[in-house]
Predict the 3D structure of the following.
Amino acid sequence: MKINENTNILIVGLGIIGGSYAKGLTKKGLKVHAIDTDRETIEYALANNIIYEGSTEADADLIGAADVVIFALYPHIFKEWIRDNQQYFKSGAILTDVTGVKGCVVYDIQNMLRDDCEYIAAHPMAGCERLGIQNSNEKIFHAANYIVVPTERNTEEAKDVCRQIGKLLRFARISELPPNDHDEMIGFVSQLTHCIAMSLMTCNHTEKLEDYTGDSFRDLTRIARIDETMWSELFLLNKDALLHQMKLFTMEFSKLERMLMEADKEGIKDMMRRSTARRKLFDKEKPEEE
C-alpha cells in the first residue's frame, strides 16, 4: 500500500499525540478522519481544519472507509475498542498505534483481530507535558525517533506502511524492535526517566523552590508534569522491565554515593567523563522547518 492523497486515514483518539498525527498528516495533503469521545475535541479539530470529518461514536461508515487506522488510546481501551468494533473494518485495512507498551497489547490484539486485517505496532518517541488537541503540534516529531514494533505475523507491506507514516511525519530516525525488546528499552529510556523526574519533585518540600531553581532542574523535571491515569497504567503493564531498570539505576546511584562518601575524586571524574561521552551520541541537529 502506498499512502497518498487517496488513502483514507482514521485516527482513533485525538489527544496530544493523536492530534499531532492528525495535524502532520493533514498538512501533507492526506484526508484524515477521527473518532474521539469528547465532542469539544472533535469540534475543535474540525473548526481548525485538523481533520476532514469526525465523530464521537464508533461510526461504522468512518471505520469502514479507512485504509489505515491509527489508534492513540490507553492500552486497555485500545483492546476493548478492537473487540467491540472490528466488524466495521474494511477487508485489507492496516491498523497501527502509538501505545507506550507493546508486549501486553500486541499479541492480544493480533490474536483477536479478523484474519483479513492486519495490526502492526509502532511507537513515536515524542510527547509533550501538556494535554489535549489544543496543545498538539506536529513539530514534536521532527527531531524524534519512531519505532516500528513488528511480530513474526506482520507482513512487509504493513512494516512499509508504518515507515511511510514515520517519514510523512518527519521523524528524524526510524528503527525496528520486537515487542519484548521494545518494552525493555522503553522501561529505561522513558519510564525510568519519568520515575526519576517524579521522585525529584516529591523528595524535597522546600517552600518556593520554584524561585530558586535554574535551567538544570527545570530541564530534568519537565516530564514530571504527568498524566497520572495513562502513566500509572503504563508503569504497571511494564512492571517487570521497569523494576529491573530501577534496580540498575539504584546500583549506579549507590556507586556515586559511595564515591562521594570516600572522597573518590578520580572515580567521580571518570563517571562524569563516561557520562559526557555517551550523552554526545544523543545530540542531533533538528531538521530545517518547511
